[in-house]
Amino acid sequence: MTADAITRTPHDGSRPGAPGAGRTRHAGAPAGRGRKALTYTVLILLALAFVVPLVWMVSSSLKPENQIMQVPPNPVPTHPQWDTYAKAGRTVWPFFLNSCKLAALNVVFLLLFASLAAYGFARLKFAGKRIAFAMLLATAMIPSMVYLIPQYILYRHIGWIDTQYPLLIPRVLTPVFGTFLLRQAFKQVPGELEDAALIDGAGRFTIYWRIMLPQVKPALAAVGVLTFMESWNDLFGPLIFINSPSIQTLPVALAMFQGEYFSQTNLMMAAATVSVIPPLVLFLMAQRYFVKGVTMSGLKG
Fold this sequence. Notes:
Helices cover 70% and strands 0% of the residues. By secondary structure, it is mostly helical. The radius of gyration is 28 Å and the shape is globular.
């Protein structure tokens, strides 16, 4: 074959001069560009579906009442009313602090108990380990509404009604989802690290605390973010178990705020904007570790 013939050989492997030779690439290019354009269009529409309500909320919090429902809507306030945040803050600030305290305690203690349980299920050998882990996972499949009434009766007998204990103790002592994620992460740590520490005379708790935990930091970050979000957005628990406004949390306060200031939309939007800030800041700070932790623990989709 001459050099001229070689340069004319199609890249798809077909013989030169054969019918259809060299057409596959050119025929597939428009289809590929079409699929890519369709994918970007769908992604942009989905992004707008999530971003537009957030922009409308922030914009409405800075507008006077008579401009919020204006048609056509103007996303940029002409004269921002920053004092709405001061007025809303004076009402929701105590509830905001209660939610912050509860979310922080939930994250710290759940990470501690979940990591201990996950390390045991992942690295220790004991009789009935598989059965115990299967039973642990099975508890997550029971709908929470099924045991709500027994929970309420139990908490009333032990004096936990109108306290914050029901929002903290049961959640950190039964960290099923966190245990599952961290167990998957612990199982991926090379066993040689643990063996070397055992040869050097380290105890089990030292190995867990100083060697294994630093290896699963991304998974810890992922569990921490998910736990914070669960506690921060919990409306049902505080509504059922807490009566006193002094220990009530932010989601309940926002619902009360909506009823009290139903005619002042800008105040409601300011309070809602304040409630979004802590989870948003936490997620942005832990975004890199969160994605890595979810991938590391094998949770996809």
